[in-house]
């Protein structure tokens, strides 16, 4: 049973040296637990925050302990009445090939509804994040302009498509020409900007949004957000989803102070955490699944093969290696 533990806390960008592979014995499930074999692992930007030894909404990872995160697995041993051997489940047992997990921490996956990997992406944490950020805070309307940063990522591509579903003009910001082409040609985004090659982001946003910005779904923060915020409209809504451009910074990012712009535009900027919406997950997942079935919502997964490539897949999030949800395939069902 191979496991990956946090060997040291990253300083700046995470590197392979921060992670260590250890060999553990096969865990024995206690009462209320089942033995699960990992099939897929999710790697997510928020995990970088848990690698710091600072207080946040999720507790820091302890050194030399298995890194916890989203996973899909198959029950291989169970004496619990509610889960049978062979059942496919999702939970947060993290970077290990086998785990003994409390049945109360597992959700059963219906593989007839969608491919199982969707439960870590479009129908899982990232799809739901896009859904609630848009539904509860962004509230885009027909004819409005929506800007999404991190637009080719797991959350961003769903958020942008939700904008399209309601009839908004959608402008995406992403880090490569290939990603921009995908968003425009496959997902129907109206304009897509490559922030790595755009000389003047503020001017580019102004040109891309002739009627200003009504909703800015922010996944990245930093200079990109400063540029977008300069163009918000009266009563703009800004779901503050993530700030990935700052996650590897050792010193706080000092940038534009947008208060005056928020004030004079009577705009709403609101941070949100997916964990606060757990009561509505069922409803959100049903809505996303319906859109997928109707062909209104598409998603992309970037799957690397092999448990040993998990750290590499995680590190790649910060250089934009992924189009859509980054996953690691550990084993076949
Ligand atoms: P993504 O799939 O979007 O992967 C990360 C992407 O971020 C990369 O592909 C890269 O794309 C982009 N990126 C990396 N570094 C930078 C940078 N310095 N500046 C701009 N873009 C950068 O990840 P997720 O969809 O899982 O997450 C997106 C955001 O949502 C994250 O900030 C995450 O923390 C947040 N989040 C928040 C939640 C909440 O509850 N509020 C829940 C889940 C996620 P590119 O090539 O375009 O640079």
From TrEMBL:
InterPro entries: ADH-like_C, ADH_N_2, ER, GroES-like_sf, MDR_fam, NAD(P)-bd_dom_sf. Residues 15-328 form the Enoyl reductase (ER) domain. It comes from Paenibacillus cucumis. Keywords: Oxidoreductase. The lineage of its organism: Bacteria, Bacillati, Bacillota, Bacilli, Bacillales. Coiled coil: none annotated. The keyword Oxidoreductase applies. The keyword Oxidoreductase applies. This is NADP-dependent oxidoreductase.
